[in-house]
TrEMBL record:
Pfam families: DnaJ, DnaJ_C, DnaJ_CXXCXGXG
Domain J as annotated: residue spans: 10-75
Organism the protein comes from: Nonomuraea endophytica
Low complexity: bias regions: 128-140
Subunit organization: Homodimer.
Entry protein name: Chaperone protein DnaJ
Main location: cytoplasm
Origin superkingdom: Bacteria
CXXCXGXG motif repeat ranges, renumbered to this chain: 175-182, 192-199, 214-221, 228-235
Cofactor remark: Binds 2 Zn(2+) ions per monomer.
Residues in CR-type zinc fingers: 162-240
A cellular component annotation (GO) from this entry: cytoplasm
SMART domains given in the database record: DnaJ
Family (UniProt): Belongs to the DnaJ family.
Protein encoded by which gene: dnaJ
Length: 395
């Protein structure tokens, strides 16, 4: 992609978010579009595949704080053109791909920041009629592979304890038929005679000479006379692979896990991109979760709550633990069982928060009814609502 295309393309519009969108809004918009246009769910649909690449490109820029800032600053700086507007009000009177040497907007980003691109800008701007020989185009430099995002659904226990999952990933990689050269098997590319293999050419504009990607080899530095039929000479093809990914213990629903260098392979010896896995956690029939603590509601009888008791409480994995509840325990009181919660990053564990729920029997036999009637008679002088009524009257 030329820098002109990079600056003129509205990545916010691609994701359907305003320029003021937060990181969460951008992430939500990308996920929604990615599910809609992902190649795995649209096999053979080249239009949706192209749309998926476009929204992935937009997400790569806008989800990275540094790259988003550079993108916004570049569009603000050059959005109205250099040295004035075109007739009719259009921006970009110069080809910014020429100015920046085609470095901006490259997938994966690499290490080239705004300072490096501006160095390319002025290095080309004040090259007064000089040759571009010896200047290497960014397309022939090692380039970092694209980041990939995938999703996985975990059980409650897998999320708390950690799990290894199998993921099927689809990304761009070197074409297997031509090993990335772009040339048909049995043939080899030749060095571009126009740019002498640099991938860059110089265009003279009066007192200035601007460096631009070579038009004959499109910046690759090589000419493919007999292109590979599988990749049409691009050297890149869609690759599907299955990997085993370790999800760390303690992940939450909707959390984004980063696995470094597990994304798309790089080009020209560049490093691989990263893999981001969005986790979806199923609910548990017994346990809940609050931060690093697990929660559970434990039923107790009226007599256990009134007289006190030792009760068995289940934990997520392993044998139940014994919990002692004191006499006079009210309904809803929460007890803490240390070290039986979610595993943290430092290896320690949160707690299990057990809340008691006093059960009221739906039916009573005659003996139980007589005993409760006797108890009610013995405690008839204790009105639990007397204080409540008194406070209500005093207000």
């Amino acid at each position: 992609m030329s820098t002109k295309d990079y600056l003129e393309k509205d990545y916010y519009a691609v994701l359907g978010v305003p320029k003021t969108a937060t990181a969460d809004e951008i992430k939500k918009a990308y996920r929604k579009l990615a599910r809609q246009y992902h190649p795995d769910t649209n096999q053979g649909d080249s239009v949706k595949e192209a749309k998926f690449k476009e929204i992935s490109e937009a997400n790569d820029i806008l989800s990275d704080t540094k790259r988003r800032k550079e993108y916004d600053e570049a569009r603000t700086l050059f959005g109205s053109g250099v040295g004035g507007q075109r007739p009719g009000g259009g921006g970009f009177p110069f080809d910014f791909g020429d100015l920046f040497g085609g470095t901006a907007g490259q997938q994966g980003g690499g290490s080239g920041g705004a300072g490096e691109r501006l160095g390319d800008l002025f290095g080309g701007l004040f090259n007064r009629g000089g040759s571009s020989t010896g200047r290497t185009s960014s397309t022939t430099r090692p380039r970092r592979g694209q980041d990939i995002e995938s999703e996985v659904t975990l059980t409650f226990t897998e999320a708390v304890e950690g799990s290894t999952v199998s993921l099927r990933l689809t990304s761009s990689a070197a074409c297997k038929s031509c090993t990335g050269t772009g040339a048909k098997a049995g043939t080899t590319p030749r060095v571009c005679p126009t740019c002498e293999g640099t991938g860059a050419a110089s265009r003279n504009l009066g007192n200035f000479a601007f460096s631009e990607p070579c038009r004959d080899c499109k910046g690759r530095g090589l000419i493919v006379d007999d292109p590979c039929p599988d990749c049409d000479g691009s050297g890149r093809a869609k690759s599907t692979r299955t990997i085993q990914a370790r999800i760390p213990a303690g992940v939450g629903d909707g959390q984004r896990v980063k696995l470094k260098a597990k994304g798309a392979p790089g080009e020209n010896g560049g490093p691989a991109g990263d893999l981001y896995i969005v986790t979806h956690v199923k609910a548990h029939a017994v346990f809940g979760r609050t931060g690093d603590n697990l929660t559970i509601t434990v039923p107790v009888t009226f007599s256990e709550a009134a007289l006190g008791a030792e009760i068995k409480v289940p934990i997520l994995k392993g044998l139940p633990v014994t919990l002692r509840i004191p006499a006079g325990t009210p309904n809803g009181r929460t007890f803490r069982v240390r070290g039986r919660g979610v595993t943290r990053k430092d290896g320690t564990k949160g707690d299990l928060l057990a809340s008691v729920e006093v059960l009221v029997p739906e039916t009573l036999d005659e003996k139980s009814r007589d005993l409760l009637t006797e108890f009610s008679t013995a405690t008839a002088g204790d009105d639990p609502r007397a204080e409540l009524i008194q406070r209500a009257r005093s207000e």
